[in-house]
């Protein structure tokens, strides 16, 4: 019998024996008879030394190939035999319903505005922005004067301010942190500032005297209007998950020049015109603009060398849009039911009707 | 601001087929947001000017008059409810066969047993703002029987958002809007000079000057006036009445209408004084507390600094806001002193807001009007008045006191900077064309530089630097024509903000892993809720203008709102955790503070149904949350120590309260809410347990990093031995732990705390503590002997310290 024929024979025998082995022990014995120290294949491999080099190489390759194949075969057959025997040893008559949920437990949740805030923070962090904070009780200087809004400015009347008896105020806008951020970091600068703002407005379903904004500020050499548009488009794409048509039109805010309103296609009617967008097809989303040179100067930044843009995103409004909250007061209510999907409060839901 | 399309067409030849919505869209994109576009479609036909021949009330009715009218060739009898009719008046009449909106064909009928032919047209039927049922009176210049041109009545009205033009005084009149519209459509703007006759051409040099004195030129940079004779009280032309109505100004009478018309056209407010009452002018600052009756009949107290118009030092008007009742024009007025002035905006704004009375005039003066317009306004008034009043003549020369002329404004613009700032190239030709269409004058000052002279109507506030000029160029180029491009920025390091990091990680951990639900409350207390709690907050920061009474005190703790939320949510949840992270406000003075402070607090509440033992479980939950939070977020343990004095807050339990110590600093407390307080909130709440924690984050921002050397994994097995000991209940965990530290044994690797147990089954006055000792040897496996020997040594140590094993 040639060597190759011998190998074929060993292979055939081993496969048959592995198939016939009834349990892991029997298989181990079979394996040892072929691949063990005194196994048939091992011995055959040893005898190869006597062959002339050309034959040796050819036969050696075939023998090693068979050895690898059989090792794999035995390992697979072993797992199969173990699994069968493991299953036989388990009591399958025990009642079990795989579909029952785990019992009710506390799940926990951040506030909808916080959830949106974190999401936006992450978007800007990915763009290399840093995140800053500022006080809710602030000075007239940071909230108005430093923002090119001296007491003689008509815009001071546009925002009804809560004043404290100590002469300070509750910030009316996160823009109050613009000059603080410039003082802290100096240019170049990329920063977003989430935070709570306060305006003495009459409270109703769509207005609250307490709300969240997220301010953005970029100051660098040669920042342009084109840069502002691209950044705002990117922001909206990240938030809404797709490219949205936007339009930029003039808007007036004392601390930017020029100032813009950035509108995006109404998400309710997809631009066709509906009640939400006052039939215009557009939703006012982001007041923004190029940082006014006086604001840069207030932040000790040289407007000859640097330009910048700033924007204010209404986090509260975004949260209302995202979660379909129609009454803004829900967000400052102590009632958790307005802030959470029911299953977060009560656990698995079977029927849910509003 | 309401803009009439008909009016704009006076100044720009807009195509007849222009879609007003398209115009509105382009105004929104280039100039200012348009809020609405409304068509005034007057579906009327066959209306005539008629003269009243007679008018008498119909007996037995209260409001009906039998009126005879003439349309020249024909006479009609009509029954009308219109008031104030008198023989000789001219008015708008719909003869039988005419059509009126909402009525259709006007015919003949019988009203209150009287025959009635056609009808006297009520103002509201043709878009003229009048009192209900008021007839539309026409001036004597109208020929009786003439057909009314419907084109004067039908119009489109565009409403511009006032907030979008606060910085643009020029846009508060139709001519300014027309200038923008002309530039948008590339059409010529008719020069305003074409709408006036220069006053010099009408003046007689023999006429006197009006004596004008301005006390404080800073507050009144210019005052122009003219005395005019030959006035008659009469209705304005129909077209003027219609336009005023369309832009929200009610037509009253020719003189008043003319001042309003010029204001709506040129943005120059004007006032007509009765010329017999007022023939000299002084502009002076009011004495504080001075009283003055305005022409609406109200006596008002003048605020400090109010600017007054006086005549012979007698107040006749509040400058820029409203005239006085004594000097107002009446139906008998034949001579007026026409005021056209320029006032300092802040003075006017402060006075109007102090009086609580903003008028069309003051709204415009607040915006820094162009002083060049005062004389233009007078000339335009005269031009329009002349057409209606043949006897009109000037009774003074144009009197103009102009002590404070503004400096001309010019800005040098670098076209390379324009390209860089906008982010695209704009041809020099295009830049020039845009600016010239807006009446800027340009002088080249270099290859890429232009000196831009700002016209007076843009120079008062609006345009003073290159960014302002660039905006003009960019908005006409169109922002949609700027290719978006992300900024090329310089990378740099930003010092991280530890507060933000701490806050975000805290919320993510507490809400994400520990099951707390976040709430966000108002930062002011609600006095009525505090009263329920019985909590008197003591010295606090307060609002000068709170949102409502009882909401004026800023919170110095988050606990009241957590309690409110606990009460609200227990009705639908049996077991829940609440977290709020927010600002609290601490006044100077208290606790030795030198200044008022804002602090960031983390408040936690754990609420569950059940009292007694459940209360301890509830407290354990909060303690566990604080411990896990401290490890996860601050990378260090939280310790609990006995509070150093009487409990400070009403919601702190008299003895179940612990101070929280992190990094050797007291940062807050944990407690359970005592029964009586729960009972005050709601009787049923006594059956619930509420545990609270409130921690101040500000002291935890700059903690040094902890050195954490992880111990090597023992190479030989260790043995765990548990010891349950009995301790006097008045020995605290911290005391016992300190004592344990004195126990030394070569095999002891770690001694830890497993739990504390307190029960009536234990000897009175004691509790049980379970400790776990880990013993081991670095070089060998322990023997049974090792273990016995350790147990003996440790038990002996415990006994010596009065901590016997619980058998």
Search tags:
heterodimer, A: 354 residues, alpha+beta, seven-stranded mixed β-sheet, two-stranded antiparallel ribbon, 9 strands, elongated, B: 807 residues, six-stranded antiparallel β-sheet, 19 helices
Task: Give a verbal description of the structure.
The complex is a heterodimer of chains A (354) and B (807). Chain A is an alpha+beta fold. Chain A has helices at 3-20, 24-35, 40-47, 53-89, 112-126, 140-143, 155-158, 176-185, 225-240, 293-298, 315-323, 342-346; strands at residues 130-131, 137-138, 169-170, 189-198, 210-220, 246-250, 256-265, 282-291, 307-314. Chain A is elongated. In chain B, the strands form 10 sheets. Chain B has a 7-stranded mixed β-sheet, sandwiched between helices. In chain B, strands 3, 4, 5, 6, 11 and 12 form a 6-stranded antiparallel β-sheet that branches. A 5-stranded mixed β-sheet of chain B has the order 14-17-20-21-22. In chain B, a hairpin with a 2-residue loop joins strand 33 (657-662) and strand 34. Chain B starts with a strand and ends in a 7-residue tail after the last helix. Classes of the chains: A alpha+beta (354), B alpha+beta (807). At the A-B interface, helix 5, strand 1, helix 7, strand 4 and strand 5 of A face helix 2, helix 6, helix 9, helix 12 and helix 13 of B.
């Amino acid at each position: 019998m040639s060597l190759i024929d011998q190998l074929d024979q060993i292979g055939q025998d081993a496969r048959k024996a592995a198939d016939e082995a009834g349990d892991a022990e029997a298989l181990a014995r079979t394996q040892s008879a072929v691949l063990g120290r005194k196994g048939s294949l091992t011995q055959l491999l040893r005898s190869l030394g006597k062959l002339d080099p050309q034959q040796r190489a050819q036969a050696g390759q075939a023998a090693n190939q068979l050895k690898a194949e059989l090792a794999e075969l035995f390992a697979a057959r072993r797992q199969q035999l173990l699994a069968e025997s493991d299953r036989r040893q388990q009591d399958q008559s025990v009642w079990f319903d795989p579909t029952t949920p785990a019992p009710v437990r506390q799940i926990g949740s951040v506030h909808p505005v916080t959830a949106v805030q974190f999401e936006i923070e992450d978007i800007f962090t990915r763009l290399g922005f840093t995140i800053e904070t500022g006080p809710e009780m602030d000075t007239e200087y940071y909230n108005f004067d430093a923002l090119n809004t001296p007491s003689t400015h008509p815009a001071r009347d546009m925002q009804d301010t809560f004043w404290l008896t100590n002469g300070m105020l509750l910030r009316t806008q996160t823009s109050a942190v613009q000059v603080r951020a410039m003082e802290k970091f100096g240019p170049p600068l990329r920063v977003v500032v989430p935070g709570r703002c306060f305006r003495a407005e009459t409270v109703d379903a769509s207005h609250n005297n307490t709300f969240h904004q997220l301010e953005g500020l970029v100051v660098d050499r040669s920042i342009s209007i084109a840069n502002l548009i691209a950044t705002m488009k990117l922001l909206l794409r990240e938030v809404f998950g797709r490219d949205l048509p936007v339009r930029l039109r003039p808007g007036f805010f004392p601390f930017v020049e020029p100032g813009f309103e950035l509108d995006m296609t109404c998400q309710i009617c997809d631009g066709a015109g509906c009640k939400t967008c006052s039939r215009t097809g557009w939703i006012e989303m982001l007041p923004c603009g190029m940082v006014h040179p006086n604001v840069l100067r207030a932040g000790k930044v040289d407007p000859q060398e640097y330009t910048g843009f700033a924007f204010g995103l209404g986090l509260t409004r975004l949260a209302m849009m995202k979660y379909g909250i129609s009454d803004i007061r829900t967000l400052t209510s102590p009632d958790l039911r307005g802030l959470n999907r029911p299953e977060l409060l009560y656990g698995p839901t079977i029927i849910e009707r509003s | 601001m309401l803009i009439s399309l008909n009016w704009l067409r006076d100044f720009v030849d807009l195509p007849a087929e222009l879609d007003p919505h398209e115009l509105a869209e382009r105004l929104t994109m280039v100039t200012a947001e348009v809020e609405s576009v409304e068509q005034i479609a007057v579906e009327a036909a066959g209306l005539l000017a008629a003269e009243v021949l007679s008018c008498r009330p119909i007996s037995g009715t209260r409001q009906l008059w039998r009126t005879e009218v003439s349309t020249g060739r024909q006479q009609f009898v009509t029954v009308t409810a219109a008031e104030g009719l008198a023989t000789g008046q001219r008015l708008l009449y719909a003869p039988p066969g005419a059509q009126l909106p909402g009525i259709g064909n006007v015919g003949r009928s019988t009203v209150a047993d009287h025959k009635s032919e056609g009808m006297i047209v009520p103002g509201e039927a043709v878009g003229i703002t009048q009192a209900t049922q008021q007839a539309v009176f026409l001036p004597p210049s109208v020929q009786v029987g003439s057909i009314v041109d419907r084109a004067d009545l039908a119009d489109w009205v565009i409403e511009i958002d006032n907030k979008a033009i606060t910085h643009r005084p020029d846009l508060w009149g139709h001519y300014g809007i027309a200038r923008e519209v002309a530039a948008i459509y590339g059409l010529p703007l008719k020069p305003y000079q074409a709408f006036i006759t220069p006053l010099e051409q009408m003046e007689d040099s023999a006429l006197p000057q009006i004596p004008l004195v301005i006390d404080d030129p800073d507050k009144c940079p210019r005052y122009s006036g003219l005395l005019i004779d030959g006035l008659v009280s009469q209705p304005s032309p129909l077209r003027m009445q219609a336009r005023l109505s369309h832009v929200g100004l009610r037509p009253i009478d020719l003189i008043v209408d003319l001042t309003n018309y010029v204001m709506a056209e040129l943005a120059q407010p004007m006032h007509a004084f009765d010329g017999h009452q007022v023939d000299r002018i002084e502009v002076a600052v009011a004495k504080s507390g001075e009283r003055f009756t305005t022409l609406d009949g109200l006596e008002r107290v003048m605020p400090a600094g109010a600017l007054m118009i006086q005549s012979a030092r007698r107040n006749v008007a509040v400058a820029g806001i409203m005239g006085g009742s004594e000097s107002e024009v009446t139906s008998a007025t034949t001579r007026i002193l026409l005021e056209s002035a320029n006032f300092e905006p802040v003075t006017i704004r402060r006075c109007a807001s102090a009086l609580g009375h903003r008028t069309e005039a003051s709204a415009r003066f607040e915006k820094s009007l162009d002083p060049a317009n005062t004389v233009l306004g007078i000339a335009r008034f005269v031009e329009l008045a002349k057409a209606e009043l043949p006897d009109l003549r000037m009774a003074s020369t144009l009197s103009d006191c102009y002590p404070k002329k503004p400096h001309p404004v010019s800005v040098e613009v670098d076209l390379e900077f324009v390209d860089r700032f906008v982010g695209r190239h704009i041809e020099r030709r295009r830049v020039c064309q845009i600016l010239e269409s807006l009446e800027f004058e340009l002088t080249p000052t270099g290859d890429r530089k232009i000196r831009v002279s700002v016209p007076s109507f843009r120079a008062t506030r609006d345009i003073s630097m290159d960014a302002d000029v660039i905006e003009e160029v960019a908005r006409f180029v169109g922002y949609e024509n700027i290719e978006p491009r992300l900024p090329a920025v310089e990378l740099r390091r930003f010092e991280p903000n530890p507060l933000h990091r701490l806050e975000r990680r805290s919320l993510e951990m507490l809400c994400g892993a520990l099951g707390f639900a976040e709430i966000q409350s108002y930062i002011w207390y609600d006095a009525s809720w505090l009263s329920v709690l019985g909590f008197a907050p003591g010295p606090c920061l307060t609002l000068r203008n709170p949102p409502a009474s009882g909401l004026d005190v800023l919170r110095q703790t988050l606990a009241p709102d957590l309690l409110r939320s606990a009460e609200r949510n227990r009705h639908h949840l049996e077991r829940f955790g609440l977290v709020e992270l927010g600002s609290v406000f601490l006044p100077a003075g208290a606790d030795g503070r030198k200044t008022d402070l804002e602090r960031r607090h983390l408040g936690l509440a754990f609420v569950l149904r059940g009292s007694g033992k459940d209360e301890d479980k509830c407290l354990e939950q909060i303690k566990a949350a604080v411990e896990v939070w401290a490890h996860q977020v601050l990378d260090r343990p939280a310790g609990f120590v006995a509070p150093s004095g009487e409990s400070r807050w009403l919601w702190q339990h008299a003895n179940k309260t612990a101070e929280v110590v992190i990094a050797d600093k007291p940062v807050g407390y944990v407690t359970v809410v005592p029964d009586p307080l729960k009972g005050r909130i709601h009787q049923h709440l006594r059956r619930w347990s509420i545990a609270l924690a409130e921690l101040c984050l500000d002291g935890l921002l700059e903690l040094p990093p902890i050195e954490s050397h992880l111990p090597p994994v023992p190479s030989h097995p260790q043995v765990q031995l548990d010891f349950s000991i009995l301790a006097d209940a008045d020995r605290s965990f911290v005391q016992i732990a300190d004592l344990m530290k004195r126990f030394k044994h070569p095999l002891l690797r770690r001694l830890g705390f497993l739990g504390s147990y307190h029960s009536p089954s234990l000897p009175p006055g004691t509790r049980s503590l379970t400790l776990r000792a880990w013993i081991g040897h670095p070089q060998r496996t322990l023997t049974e002997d090792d273990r016995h020997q350790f147990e003996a040594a440790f038990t002996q140590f415990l006994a010596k310290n009065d901590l016997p094993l619980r058998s």
